[in-house]
Amino acid sequence: MASYLIRRILYMVPIIFGVMVITFVLFFVVQSPTAMAKRILGPKAKPEAIQNWLHNRGYDKPRFINTQPGATWWDSQFVHQMKALATFDLGYSDATGESIARMFRQGAIPSLLITVPSFIFGFLISLSAALFFVFVRDSRTDLFGVILCVAMMSIPIQVYVIFGQWLIAVKTSYLPAFGFYLSGASTIKFLVLPVILYTLADLGGEVRLYRTIFLEEIHQEYVKTAQAKGVSPARVLFVHVLKNGMISIITLVVASLPFLIIGSLVLENFFGIPGLGNLTVNAIRTSDFAVVRTTVYLGSLLYLVGLLLTDICYAAVDPRIRFQ
Amino acid sequence: MSLLEVRNLRIQFVTEEGETQAVDDISFFVDSGETVALVGESGSGKSVTALSLSRLVPTPPARYQGGQILFEGKDVLQFSKRQLQDLRGGKIAYVFQEPSTSLNPVFRVRNQIAEAIHLHRRDVQDVRAEILNILDLVGIRDPIRAMEAYPHQLSGGMQQRVMIAMALACRPKLLVADEPTTALDVTIQAQILNLLRELRKKLGMAVLLITHNFAIVSNLADRVLVMYRGKIVEQGPTQEVLHHPKHPYTQALLACIPKIGSMERRLTTIDHEALARMS
Amino acid sequence: MNFPLWIQNLAIFLLAASMGSAFWFVARSPRWQRATRRFRNDKVGLLSACVISVYLFIGLLDSVQIPAGPHRDRTALDWMFHGIKRERTYSAPLASTSYSATRPQPLEGRHVLGTDVLGKDVLLQTLKACRTALIIGGLTSMIYIPLGTLFGVLAGYYRRWVDDVIQYIYSTLATIPSILLLIAIIMALGKGLPQISIALGVTAWVGLCRLIRGETMRQSQRAYVEAARALGQSHRQIICRHILPNVMHLVIINFILGFSGFVMTESILSYLGVGVPVGTPSWGQMIDSARMELAREPAVWWNLGASACALFFLVLALNLLGDALRRAFDPRGSSVSVSR
Amino acid sequence: MALRILYLTVACALLAGCSNNPHPPPFREKRADGTPWQASYRPFPDDPRSLDPQFSYDTLGHAVVSLVYEEMLEYHPLKTDPYELIPCLADGMPEPISGSDGTLAYRFRIKRGVYFHDDPCFSSGKGRELVAADMAYAFNRIADPKVECPVLSTLAEFVVGLQERNDEAKRTKSFDYSKPFPGIRVIDDHTFDILLLKPFPQLLYWMAMPFTAPVPREAVEYYDGRSHDGTIRQQFKFKPVGTGPFRLVEWKKGLSLRLIRNDNYTATRFPTEGWPAADAARYQAMAGKPIPFLDEVDFRIIRESIPAWLLFRQGYVEAAGLGKDVFDTAVSARQELTPEYQARGVWLYKDAEPSTFYFQFNMQNPVVGKNRKLRQAISAVYDVDLEIDIFMNGIYLNAQQLLPPGVYGYQADFKDPYRQHNVEQARQLLAEAGYPNGYDAKTGKQLQLTLDLTVDDAESRQLAEFEKEQIEKLGISVKVEENLWATQQDKMDRGNFQFTASGWNADYPDPENFFFLFYGKNIPPEGNNNSRYANPEFDRLFEKMRAMENSPERLDLIHRLNAILTEDCPMIPLYHPVAFHLSQPWAPRVVLNPLVSNGLKYTQIDVAMRKQKQVEWNRKPMWPLAGIAAFLAAAGMFAYRWSQRHG
After folding, report:
1. What does residue D331 show for φ and ψ, rounded to 5 degrees?
2. Is A150 found in the same domain as A71?
3. Neighbours of chain B (3+ CB pairs under 8 A)
């Protein structure tokens, strides 16, 4: 097990390197830091100020290889970026000069407060709904359910948010239309609406996916065996099929766990929740490349963590898989 | 009264591609303690017949169009869900073709057998002892280890023994073995067939053996039913059908039998190896 | 980078033509015939196909130019709407005065779905956006389907180092969260339909490639491929005659489901400010504008209503069609992988 | 079943009981004397980038900086025509002095008894008194390359020593703060002179801008963003320490900035004159009173305009700008409040801003730069009134010149002959320009122009589409190039564009601050002349006008400058913004001058009225609860019957 994991982690090293190269090319070669400097210092800034800004951040160095006389060849933006990312020195926001590590630490909590409950509710609801539809499979209810799921998937998340905000926050005054602060139990009032909407927006897809997974299990031979044993349809579904289906589902779900921390791009911005999603959208809007590329990089790392978790999870829940 | 009597059973399949008459007006019976073989090529409707005995054929796409399935004199087609669940496993038990997929991969062998016992034999006090007992009965040498194993940790022959153990766990009156050896190595096939024969003697249950293999039939069956395109085209005592087939289909089928002798020779040569793999 | 109209039209045409010919090409195999038979009995699938045809038809209408008089780039669709006048600004559906609680002014004409901020007919804008959606879907498909299929088949067939290289490329791309990669690419390339399509294509081929690679590996181990190999057929022949036709259905299902994904993604991109360029009608932008418009008093709902409905029905139909095709090819639903 | 009903009731009660107030509670409920604590909640569009007064150069930064820091001078909060500077930290207006050696200088006296905020950066924890050395330190900071002061080069042209100190620091790669700043002559602790290189009447305006705010050296050195004894101190730019009426006590990024009253504040009081006669009673009550009135200012960061408006409607923020989408809700055709908002008691304010928006051409571009008639044609075809009507609620002022109203030299009755939306004239001009009907007379090809814009949201997108369509009325084709903000800036710098939309907001109300945008020596990278307009005649007049005090002669020069710009058309003036603002009934606005960014120090609110209105405006209807209950009941029924059927 340990050696397997080490091998997996080693395998990720070239991938991380690839990600770093891609982000570097996208953010440094194609977009010039000079434009960024203008953005930060304001349109009225003088060229010296810009040169100064670039110099202070090392953006005036050559891109890949330093060919200037007297300089070491690795004294370049690329090498410095690689080094910084590899050592988790996330640097400072181009826009505010704040420590990115600190921004991410602060943003993670609100994001998790939205995503974790949505994830739990969403998971439970979709699991039950999927089991229900599988239980009544091939009936009118099932067909209706599938169409409903697809319909829910076909609505962009913005429409959910626009409608939810309008209905609950504007028309009824039950919940705050906007805003967020951490303060014990009363934080909940800010979470209710985003959590509901986030759950709803993902529900259709999840139910449909879980339903497909369970349906596939339903056609397995062992289901026939169980029926022939005299096991009731409910027990067949909720014990035999559920346990088998859960293997696929849990591994899928585990892979998405690390992403909970990123939060929701659209939702957080609409509700003014200062999470990582909001941070990212804002960075995109203000061309804060330091933050955007860190998000890309961290997102990639999270994905790889997800893959690793999936492997571990498989080993944990599927008796058929044992690491050699 | 026969243990099982099927009268004029008709089953139709309705799919997007049209309707198929899977079982077309068949009648037969199985007496207590008797072994009956249902023979036919694939697609002849024999599996559907077997499954329909406890209404395991899913509806839709299947449709029971008519006839009766009398088990101990009661019509299975009129059973409630509750009665059906008692019938299945409790009275009629099944052994399927492919043991590797027919066992639930994520439950231990113990749990799978225990489930059957819990469902039909509430009176059993020591379930664990009973499981060991049954596993021993089907010839598993290290029942304690097998009990705690997951199906994939067992060899094909062992898996099929577990299937049989599971079927026998509730002392059924009728064991329906749906091509129980097709998926197995030739060497294991013989072992499983021997096991079935012994068990039938020991437990005195009736066996309905579904197969396309006449070699098995001649070894095991008292009577033979030959099925072709959903109809029973010939039936009678085994020796009579084998040696004096009346229906041309039966004659054609018999012509395809592999030489029994050669099979047995190979069987003896590979036996040790297979045993070694099993333990 | 902005392609002239005829190239965009070509995208739509190629889209329709390639779909048609792909069907025709593979429809002879028994597997496809079985699937066609099953599909014919699938009411939901047929209905979805009809809905999609309507969208395609509208897209085509808006691609045919009728150069008449001073209006050089007027399409057939514009021509059909030519009687409808331009207003100053918002007006409600079928209203006779312009939208305003306090300053209503008489309108030039009646508009079934009202007008938008610039006084354009919302119905026409909604219909014109079909073409934008089709072009995004079409151009993207032209990029990602050949890429994904080719690399998938190569990786799955040749294995060894080819597989390693291709796997490395797509693992790396898949590792970057796709929405961020999309935004980064568009930020780097600039705005525009082709750029969006390239970005979408770069992120979308990964999924297809992985799917095709898996299926190719499965097919390569089948007896008929072994047999072909034994008969001394070249790799190219085996790939073209045996492997490709047997993975084609996955490509088509993936294409249809992917298409709906692209249309949805466009709306998110518009929200993030990296959507289609100014002056290109698109549902995503209409939905994005709706946030502000909905807060007006009285609310301007028709923009959101029209665009969200148009988007909704297309995506719904595509999803249902994809499902129906999957059912047709695989009645017992044993390939979960397609749905991810 | 009974349990389920109980749950439902509890859930409903919770839902009904919970407030939709999105703000955290104020720091205190009551003041020390028992009167209500005045906490004001203000919508704030985004985090400021920096609160370092010498660095910050954006409206958001200034909004906070000007409450925490103060400068020698400030604008009179009530006078707008003309704008008037009054002393703030200075004890009286500065006197210009000319030395016998021909040097130019201004002498400032600092008020006595002005203290910095109490802060751990001072050894005693108590704020120290402000002295002249702090001003020298502030100017040293302007010169320090590490501070990145954006106006350094502008000031360096006039103030003695800035350039040298900057060059020296660049040479030695470190800045020696122990050396006195040569441009400031400290007479005593409360008197200093600023020495000038050449006449610079605009200096007084600069002395009212945050760049020249005195900064305590202790704070800059204390807040270094590094770890000391295990605790990380903040960076100075996030932890301002000034002499102003408020102290920043909490800044949660993306959420809020919270300031509370500086109890030691004595520098200024409410003005005793200058208010409009119509509102005399209200102002008289405040005249001469100590300020600030508020105990707490809570800037709530709300990036989207819709939520900000919703919160205003619900009574949870004190002020709101009127965006185009909500304009009709609150303002009627006669530009008055609608009955609903009149009934609410809301205040409406109309602020003409000292800004101009315009199209600007790249004069170095071979197509538009060399073709004056083409530029004039575009000017003539553009329907600014329609744009104002659709996008600016019809309230912006149609601009005919570069200078906005209120700035010295503005000509109220001036009409730009090429800016009258005359399509016939436009076609005529276009034909004369060599493109009859939009087609090149020589090659027969349609003229295609590229308009570079920053497009980042729905509104800017709609506006871009409008602008494109307007110019295309000429028969030419316009391609809108949508840029990210940074890309747009980059193009401006490199001159890599044909024409673009732009705007300028007055730093100070002097025509110099507008005309320098077209001064030939200000062509990038030297300055902000993004049009790259170079006209020797214009430059000569500009230089002359710049050094003059206001006089009829100067006025004449300004008019001539304006005439040159109008004829040459390097830019097309579009409009001067007029912002409509609403204030809640309990928080009427006091300040009338749009140049004043520290208006909150004059503001007060009626807490009791706010409480009452908030309840009134947030009544919760019962129908959604009934709906939810009905839905749950139906679902329960269904589940029950279904379970009955399926055993």
Report:
1. -125, 135
2. no
3. A, C
In whole angstroms, what is the distance from residue A180 CA to residue A192 CA?
11
Q: Token digits for B196?
A: 């079935």
* CA D311/CA D538 separation, integer angstroms: 49
Helix (H, G, I), strand (E, B) or coil at B219: helix
Report pLDDT digits (tens) over C279-333: 888 888 888 887 777 777 677 888 888 888 888 888 888 888 887 887 787 765 4
For the record, the structure tokens of A92 come out as: 């400072």
Alpha-carbon dihedral sign for residues C122, C123, C124, C126: positive
Give the domain-ending residue among A86, A121, A146: A86
- D84 pLDDT higher than 60: yes
CB contact under 8 A, C291 and D458: yes
Q: Is A248 on the interface with B (CB under 8 A)?
A: no
Examine the domain organization and report whether A189 and A66 are in the same domain: no
- Concatenated DSSP letters of A272-297: T--SHHHHHHHHHHTT-HHHHHHHHH
D contacts of A107 (beta carbons < 8 Å): 254
Chain segment D306-338, per-residue pLDDT in tens: 788 888 988 999 998 887 777 877 888 778 888
Examine the domain organization and report whether A116 and A49 are in the same domain: no
Residues A147 and A53 grouped into a single domain: no
Which of A251, A248, A221 lies closest to A130, judged by CA?
A248
CB contact under 8 A, A284 and C181: no
Residue with tokens 């489901």: C257
- Nearest-angstrom CA–CA distance, C181 and C202: 9
State in Å, rounded, how far the first CA of chain A is from the last one: 7
- Alpha carbon distance A276, A290 (integer Å): 14
How many domains are there within chain A? 2
The answer to whether residues A127 and A254 belong to one domain is yes
C-alpha span between D25 and D28 (Å, rounded): 8
Choosing among C176, C189, C202, which should be mutated to test the A contact, i.e. which has the most A CBs within 10 A? C176
* E strand or H helix that includes residue A74: none
Which of D181, D75, D174 shows the shortest CA–CA distance to D137?
D181
DSSP D520: G
User: What are the tokens at D318?
Assistant: 């004190």
Nearest-angstrom CA–CA distance, A244 and A248: 8
- Looking at the fold, whether A64 and A173 belong to one and the same domain comes out as no
Residue A262 confidence (pLDDT):
76
Do residues B107 and A317 lie in contact, with contact meaning Cβ atoms separated by under 8 Å? no
DSSP D439: B
* DSSP structure class, residue D440: -
Residue of A225, A231, A244 for testing the chain B interface, max B β-carbons within 10 Å? A225
Per the CB < 8 A criterion, the answer to whether D430 and D377 are in contact is yes
Report the pLDDT averaged over residues A206-227: 84
| Smallest CA–CA distance from A43 into chain D, residue | D489
Chains in touch with D (≥3 Cβ pairs < 8 A):
A, C
> Among D323, D469, D480, whose Cβ lies nearest the Cβ of C277?
D480
Q: How far apart are CA B40 and CA B67, in angstroms?
A: 21
Are A273 and A180 in a shared domain?
yes
Torsion of CA D496, D498, D501, D506, to 10 degrees: 60
Q: Are D273 and D3 in contact (CB under 8 A)?
A: no
Chain B: nearest CA to C34, how far in angstroms? 8
- Say if A118 falls within a structural domain: yes
Residue D526, classed as helix, strand or coil, is coil
pTM over 0.90: no
Half-sphere exposure of B205 (CA within 13 A, CB side): 24
Domain that holds residue A71: 16-86
Same-domain status, A34 and A149: no
- Which chains form contacts with chain C, at 3 or more CB pairs under 8 Å? A, B, D
**Three-class SS state of C198:** helix
Does A307 map to a domain? yes
